[in-house]
TrEMBL record:
Ranges annotated as spanning the membrane: 74-99, 111-131, 143-163, 169-194, 206-225, 237-256
Record-linked InterPro entries: MFS_dom, MFS_sugar_transport-like, MFS_trans_sf, MFS_Trehalose_Transporter
Protein name: Facilitated trehalose transporter Tret1
A GO molecular-function annotation: transmembrane transporter activity
Lineage, highest ranks first: Eukaryota, Metazoa, Ecdysozoa, Arthropoda, Hexapoda
One cellular component (GO) term of this entry: membrane
Organism: Ceratitis capitata (Mediterranean fruit fly)
Recorded name of the encoding gene: TRET1
Amino acid sequence: MPESPSWLLQKGRSEKARKSLKYFRGLSENDKTTYDEFEKELALMKKTSDESRTEAANESLLQAVRSPEVYKPLIMMIGFFFFQQFSGVVIIIVFAAQIAMSAGVSVDPMLVAIFVGIARIITTFFISTIFERWGRRPAGMLSATGMTISMFLLAANGWYPVIGEHLPLLPIICIILHIIFSTLGLLTLPFLMISEVFPQRVRGSANGFTLFIGLTFSFSIIKLYPSVQSLIGTPNSFAGFALISLIGLLFIIFVVPETKGRTLLEIEKYFRTGRRVTNAQVARRQSQIAMEVAAGNYSSQYELDEVIMRLSKLHEDCEACENE
């Protein structure tokens, strides 16, 4: 696997960047055919890389954060990691056996911890397909909704022991469902979207800072949970996690944009201007691509990539770069 073309261009390795881009576009390194779109894309990447390198040399993350395309996704991702960690995901993973024991389940609590691990592994096989078919926002909303319901049911089971007497498997089911729903969205989406929302010039430093904050949240909730549990009780702790999950659902609905089918430049432009690329626009683009494919209007993977670029707003930037 070669280094990314953008990284190589930032390091001034133009020829290696050309070979890397050929690799990612399905072209042979020995292919001497000149593709206009390839040259346009390479020129655009070089222009963007030069600008990013100049900007990176002249400004730190603290300076860049004044730009809306930097501070808006930064605040959004920090919020996303907050809801990820304080919705009880990590608590269920780390304290699964203790939670099962306090809920009075009829099976070995250690088996519950094993079931949690198995549920995470199985669900992981499907998340990439779900993200690409449904989009980020629908998956996140389903995840937060399922987590809210699961945690409220766990809290209700603690508040009203009669529920557990009639439904002894309810705590196990809720714990496993919580893990499944969290893996489908709130647990995994922040790590996916962090690679999509930041401009190239600050992506490394912004990603590192955001992950530092996210892991600090994780450390904090793990250290605080035993004290909070002793102070307010396990059922009330679950109710708190349910409430945070519910607020997280509202956060996804009103704050998190859809990034499926959008180019990185389109995402950056959204944070800078507030103008979204609608699902209808993406659907029209994909429909035209499907028509090109069905008509057999391309003979190589790269020619198909040309179609995608031509129908993307990225093509406008390619043309502007070429004119310069």
